[in-house]
């Protein structure tokens, strides 16, 4: 935590006017400011609200690559963090910053914490959020996996497929929706059955705008086209809401070549030896031509 000279002098004075301010930035760009001071504060174009009921546990920090962590607790309110937004997953992996601030002069402040939301729970009209430091990302495994299927995610930089290209997706209005998981349509013109299996469904309009689901199955039943998700969307989807369906990929070499014409960027190892080869053992033989022995 770096302190400017004025802030350092204020802390050394023994009579301080300190509070904490938190900035919560969701992946969709929506931001929230909170403070444990009894009045609203503002800096960097952000208003930090005092009526949120937010408080934080002691911040644990260490040098080196140790993971910083803390916990924030606050009240749910319509003007701030809403229970429906938490349930919908809109706060998942949101960026969090915390400052130690001189509330008498907000120009005197120091960034104490920079990280993201971990586990977020709610109960009794309040929420409890685990805050994880940036070094927590280093706990995630990195590197390529030696396997036959492609390791890239369809449309990412390793894959290189432009999913905005015509033929890979379609915008369509929801028709029949069951449990925000089963979507039935009269027809999806121009796309054969199974085209969207393992793909993605994005909600572009309605109460669930911004939410996405992974498509488990794409099939025809009772004269209708059915899109089934692996898990229900965490907000209600109604008939008429805007949806976008994105093509799926089963990670096979044949699919990469025939469906996406992207064989040059295939990120798997299709010629990896099978189990029979890996468990075989060397044997001596006088005949080495590969023919049968008699």
UniProtKB/TrEMBL annotation:
InterPro entries assigned: Phage_phiJL001_Gp84, Phage_phiJL001_Gp84_C
Occurrences of domain Bacteriophage phiJL001 Gp84 C-terminal (ranges): 194-276
Protein name: Bacteriophage phiJL001 Gp84 C-terminal domain-containing protein
């Amino acid at each position: 935590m770096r302190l400017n000279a004025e802030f350092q002098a204020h802390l050394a004075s023994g009579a301080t006017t300190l509070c904490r301010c938190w900035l919560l930035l969701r992946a969709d760009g929506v931001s929230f400011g909170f403070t444990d001071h009894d009045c609203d504060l503002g800096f960097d174009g952000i208003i930090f609200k005092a009526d949120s009921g937010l408080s934080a546990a002691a911040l644990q920090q260490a040098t080196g690559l140790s993971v910083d962590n803390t916990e924030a607790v606050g009240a749910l309110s319509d003007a701030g963090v809403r229970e429906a937004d938490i349930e919908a997953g809109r706060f998942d992996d949101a960026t969090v910053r915390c400052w130690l601030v001189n509330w008498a002069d907000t120009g005197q402040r120091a960034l104490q914490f920079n990280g993201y939301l971990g586990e977020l729970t709610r109960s009794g009209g309040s929420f409890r959020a685990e805050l994880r430091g940036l070094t927590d990302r280093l706990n995630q495994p990195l590197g390529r996996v030696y396997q036959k299927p492609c390791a890239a995610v369809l449309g990412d930089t390793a894959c290189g497929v432009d999913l905005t290209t015509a033929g890979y997706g379609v915008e369509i209005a929801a028709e029949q929706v069951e449990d925000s998981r089963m979507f039935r349509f009269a027809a999806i013109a121009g796309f054969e059955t199974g085209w969207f299996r393992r793909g993605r469904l994005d909600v572009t309009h309605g109460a669930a705008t911004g939410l996405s689901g992974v498509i488990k199955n794409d099939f025809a039943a009772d004269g209708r086209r059915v899109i089934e998700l692996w898990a229900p969307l965490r907000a209600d989807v109604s008939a008429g809401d805007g949806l976008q369906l994105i093509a799926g990929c089963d990670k096979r070499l044949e699919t990469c070549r025939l469906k996406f014409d992207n064989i040059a960027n295939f990120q798997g190892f299709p010629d990896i030896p099978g189990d029979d080869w890996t468990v075989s053992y060397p044997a001596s033989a006088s005949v080495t031509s590969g023919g049968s022995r008699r």
